[in-house]
Design brief:
This protein is an alpha+beta fold. It is 47% helix and 12% strand. It is built from 16 helices and 6 strands.
């Protein structure tokens, strides 16, 4: 959950008192969901409750599936952990991140909202822009004397005037791109289901034909939006810098060789880099030692 949040300043992904709070947009209105793990890394017991807003059985059923997808609950982390552990210099981070599943952003426009503002910017700068977009165009659900924000819908951004988007900190090209994507999604010309049916190569090619979406953005959409773990976003300077430091790499091209060693799970290496950065900043805690490791004799 904290890897999905990335920074405590995230206006939508709220982590407090051991639970994840997220305002979802449903056809029936907004719903504030709370998610917590009452189990452990080795025996998770993830619970969903709806605190406020739309709460019909249909809403709950859809939110359960959405949360499962966003938190990667249907992905077995054992193979991911094993792949990371095969890289000697990655083993300490792999142990600390044990149990981490690949988190994904929500619906199609939510994905682009978490990609376009971050193009060629630091994570902190991108989150600051998204906070302003949420404040200007997002809706809120009240609960317990507070207002919990949801990401803007495609319709709200599709109808936005360009100066209003620019005032949130987007460059003109990003504002035009985000609004064009919002309009295509709002009109049904761009659909999540259609992208999901494509193989990764075809999906990447299709995405790069969209306004303002280059190879890095397309790869991030596929990895963080559609869970295609075979994708490592190319030219991501922040990820490359972090992984080079994490793995103590100095020779040119050495990281490329490590990425290729991960094969169809190379996107998980990208997430390990993000997780290791959060660990270093003290934003997440290391996982407890596994019972098997605790029982193993010393080397």
């Amino acid at each position: 959950m904290r890897v999905l949040q990335r920074r405590p300043s995230n206006a939508v992904e709220i982590w407090e008192e051991g639970r994840w709070l997220h305002a979802f947009v449903a056809a029936e209105g907004l719903a504030l969901a709370a998610v917590e793990d009452r189990g452990s890394v080795d025996a998770p017991d993830v619970r969903l409750s709806i605190l406020a807003g739309a709460s019909s059985p249909d809403v709950r059923r859809r939110l359960q599936q959405t949360v499962r997808t966003m938190l990667g609950l249907d992905v077995d982390p054992a193979a991911l952990h094993a792949a990371a552990s095969r890289v000697p210099r990655l083993r300490p981070a792999a142990r600390a991140l044990r149990g981490m599943r690949p988190p994904r952003f929500g619906g199609l426009f939510d994905i682009f909202m978490n990609v376009v503002p971050f193009q060629q910017l630091s994570l902190d700068a991108g989150i600051a822009i998204v906070r302003r977009l949420v404040a200007r165009f997002g809706d809120h659900v009240p609960f317990d004397g507070r207002r919990f924000a949801a990401l803007p819908t495609a319709g709200s951004v599709a109808a936005a005037r360009l100066p209003a988007l620019l005032a949130c900190g987007l460059s003109r090209s990003k504002a035009e791109s985000l609004r064009a994507l919002a309009r295509a999604i709002d009109r049904g010309e761009l659909a999540e289901e259609a992208i999901a049916k494509l193989d990764t190569r075809d999906a990447l090619a299709m995405l790069t034909q969209l306004p303002g979406i280059g190879p890095w953005s397309a790869a991030l959409v596929m990895l963080r939006g559609f869970g295609r773990l075979e994708v490592f976003p190319p030219g991501d300077s922040g990820a490359m810098r972090g992984l080079n430091a994490l793995l103590s790499l100095r020779a040119p091209g050495e990281l490329d060789r490590v990425v290729e060693r991960f094969g169809e799970l190379r996107g998980y290496l990208y997430l390990c880099g993000l997780g290791a950065s959060l660990l270093a900043k003290g934003l997440i805690r290391a996982a407890p030692e596994s019972p098997a490791a605790a029982r193993a004799p010393p080397p």
